[in-house]
Design brief:
This protein is mainly alpha-helical and 736 residues long. The chain is built from 38 helices and 5 strands. The structure holds zinc ion.
Length: 736
């Protein structure tokens, strides 16, 4: 639009106050695009008096009266059913008002009316991009195919490609947009983001943005978003703040700012920022859920010491504290030694029994594992009580997340996703071969179908998965790559890679310089190594699926002879399979049915050592071990269950406490008997008494006395407690 026409329009819009017919929706948009807010506002206002419902819809939308705009679009569409563009614009309104589902429908309806409608394809791309859906790129490409001059499609594609960390291609698309329109603000912002990600100054590009539109905060928000994706949270927060300085009403940026601050463990400012969004009608799922989560913090207990903060939900805090505290300290100590660095600040661990609360913490983050998440030095994770018994090894997850805390700090948050995830997965099994996730059928199928990605492209598998299990497969692949590097080049090379990534060196170069091998050659040799490990499983996989089915049926029908005959063969075809309906448990049941306890104990021991985690199976093993006279092994088996069980099994804690007590492991006995007390058992007297005798044995007489009294308070005539009290008093007298 020419400058003269702009001025005329502004004047007209201001002068004719609401009944002017000279402005079009495009004119008003142009005013807004150049930062002329009051003028744009009156321009939109003037449109609301139009005789055309579509024009009125645009007017109300521009004037932020979304409900009325929605009504007008409905009227416009009813009047001209064949008009695809009305549906596209209506869809965009709904997308802006957090209703992607209906927006998606409208874009598809538009395409039924006009199969080459570039803006409908763009709408689909925008909606898909919101959910980090891999289809987004395809839709954006279709939009460009339908209209190569559609600036926004090039800008969106640039943005999506940059999310996938392909800088060169992203810039290519941004430049395409700038060729078509020298005022393509988002394309300029992409350039700025690339500069910031490469630790260079974005000023030139941001100055250009401000020359076109001095209040275009969105450009800063785009930079912030890419910092966020790359886990550079502190810098991202600074850019969101700049975005809001320019445009305090950029609610999406304000909401993101609140969420980012919350991720870093803050409470007060996030609450203020998010509430402000909410009060101003910006109520997308992320804002609403985050506010709800902040509100739920009142139900948490905070344990603080010099280097750590542990937040546990009130209901389970007493029970979980000793276990989490011990692992937390052990992880930090191990990594300080291993990574040769100090813990980077205060580490905060939040444990959520309600998975939905935890999910809120991960909102808006692509491809994150669903069990734990790390933001700088803040770890949020599921509580063992929020998951199926045996399905979640919380100590392994904590170990994984803690690796991120160190590696993110060591690389100034510049580490590629595949490497930090791979290393974290690698650390799980380094802690114990029983930890981490044994190879799953999904992964075997992916290897069979040759779906593993080259090391240089592995990030893509995390950020924009192309098939449903690709994120899991990529975790596995990245973890095994780190295993391979350690086994072939040694542990020091891993640390060298960490330091190379800290300098923002891209993966192919790190592989070349640190490992001295071309990335292609690395892929080839890694696959050969992996094949030696799991090749047999992979080639057996299809027949294993069939034979396991038969075995499961035999087990169900209690055909124990058949199970014993076939079970071992099926087990050997894929010995890492310890998940639901596994040959180990079938065989153990058959052995027990035949009265062969020794064989049952042996097969269950193998199951446990391969990472089998069904608490019932392991309890069975522990009692077989105890019956066989091996109380040490029984205690060790029960102890493992604590790492992947909701921990509310009173009997288990009592039994393990007794085993530890008998073996003179008093710290272990204290922890287990404390767990029983924390579960508020019916028999308080007995629980307190057990705890008292563990304290006494550990030499803590005062504590012992305290719990004897608690026991007697619950049951004044409880003889064992009375006797223990006499014993304590006697020993008091004998004290020097
Ligand atoms: Zn991770």
């Amino acid at each position: 639009m020419s400058r003269v026409k702009q001025i005329v329009l502004v004047a007209a819009a201001l002068l004719c106050a609401g009944t002017c017919w000279c402005a079009t929706p495009d004119d008003c948009q142009a005013l807004r695009k150049h930062g002329k807010r009051p003028e744009a506002q009156s321009c939109f206002q003037s449109l609301t008096a139009s005789r055309d419902p579509y024009v009125r819809a645009e007017g109300f939308w521009g004037a932020h009266d979304y409900d009325q705009a929605n009504n007008e679009f409905r009227a416009a569409v009813a009047q001209s059913d064949k008009n695809a563009m009305y549906r596209v614009r209506w869809g965009m309104l709904l997308h802006e008002r957090f209703n992607n589902k209906d927006a998606d429908d409208l874009f598809n309806e538009a395409l039924q009316r006009d199969p080459k409608n570039a803006r409908a394809f763009l709408g689909l791309a925008i909606v898909s991009a919101d959910g980090f859906d891999s289809k987004a790129i395809g839709w954006a490409e279709k939009a460009i195919e339908a209209d190569p001059k559609l600036v926004e499609a090039h800008e969106l594609l640039a943005n999506l490609i940059l999310e996938d960390a392909d800088t060169d291609k992203a810039l290519e698309q941004a430049d395409e947009a700038l060729k078509i329109s020298p005022e393509a603000l988002d394309a300029m912002a992409i350039h700025a983001a690339v500069e910031v990600l490469g630790d260079k100054s974005p000023d030139m590009w941001l100055d250009k943005v401000r020359q076109v539109n001095p209040t275009y905060g969105e450009a800063y928000a785009i930079v912030a978003h890419h910092l966020d994706i790359n886990r550079r949270y502190e810098e991202s927060i600074a850019y969101y703040r700049k975005a809001l300085d320019l445009d305090p009403e950029l609610w999406s940026a304000r909401s993101q700012l609140g969420i980012s601050l919350m991720r870093l463990g803050q409470e007060d400012e996030p609450k203020k920022q998010l509430q402000m969004c909410y009060d101003n009608g910006y109520r997308d799922a992320a804002t609403v859920n985050s506010l709800r989560l902040l509100d739920s913090y009142k139900n948490f207990v905070t344990f603080k010491d010099q280097g750590t903060i542990l937040k546990l939900q009130k209901k389970e805090a007493d029970l979980l504290y000793p276990y989490f505290e011990a692992e937390l300290k052990r992880d930090i100590a191990d990594y300080e030694k291993k990574y040769k660095m100090k813990v980077p600040g205060v580490v905060q661990v939040e444990v959520y029994p309600d998975h939905e609360d935890f999910a809120v913490r991960t909102l808006g983050m692509p491809g994150l594992g669903a069990l734990g998440v790390t933001f700088n030095t803040v770890i949020a994770m599921d509580s063992p009580s929020g998951r199926e018994p045996g399905s979640f090894h919380w100590a392994s997850t904590l170990r994984h997340e803690m690796s991120h805390v160190f590696i993110l700090a060591a690389t100034n948050y510049k580490v590629p996703r595949w490497f930090t995830e791979g290393l974290a997965v690698h650390e799980e099994t380094e802690a114990s071969p029983e930890w981490g996730d044994p190879i799953t059928p999904d992964v075997l199928a992916a290897i069979r179908d040759k779906k593993l990605l080259p090391i240089a492209d592995l990030d893509r598998g995390f950020i924009r998965p192309e098939y449903p299990t690709q994120v899991i497969v990529s975790y596995f692949e990245a973890g095994r790559i780190c295993d391979y590097i350690q086994s072939r080049w040694g542990e020091d090379k891993i640390l060298e890679m960490v330091h190379a990534f800290a300098k923002a060196t891209p993966t192919p170069e790190v592989v070349r310089t640190v490992l001295g091998i071309e990335p292609d050659e690395f892929d080839k040799q890694f696959m050969e190594w992996l094949n030696r490990q799991v090749g047999t499983d992979v080639s057996n996989f299809d027949s294993w699926v069939k034979e396991l089915k038969v075995l499961a049926q035999d087990a169900k029908e209690k055909n124990y002879d058949a199970v014993l005959q076939q079970g071992e063969k099926v087990r050997q075809m894929y010995p890492e399979y310890v998940y639901a309906a596994n040959p180990y448990e079938f065989l153990a049941d058959a052995d027990l049915a035949k009265g062969n306890k020794k064989a049952a104990a042996d097969i269950l021991t193998d199951y446990m050592k391969r990472g089998g985690r069904n608490p019932e199976a392991l309890k069975k093993l522990a009692s077989l071990q105890e019956e066989g006279g091996d109380k040490v092994a029984a205690a060790a088996t029960l102890e493992r269950i604590n790492y992947f069980y909701p921990s509310n099994d009173e009997d288990l804690h009592r039994h393990l406490g007794t085993l530890w007590f008998d073996q003179k492991n008093y710290p272990g006995a204290l922890r287990e008997f404390s767990a029983v007390v924390a579960l508020h058992p019916l028999d308080q007297a007995d629980a307190q008494y057990n705890l008292a005798r563990a304290y006494l044995a550990a030499g803590e007489r005062d504590k012992a006395e305290e719990h004897i009294l608690a026991s007697l308070e619950a049951a004044p005539s409880f003889r064992p407690a009375q006797q223990l009290l006499l014993q304590v008093e006697d020993s008091e007298k004998g004290k020097p």
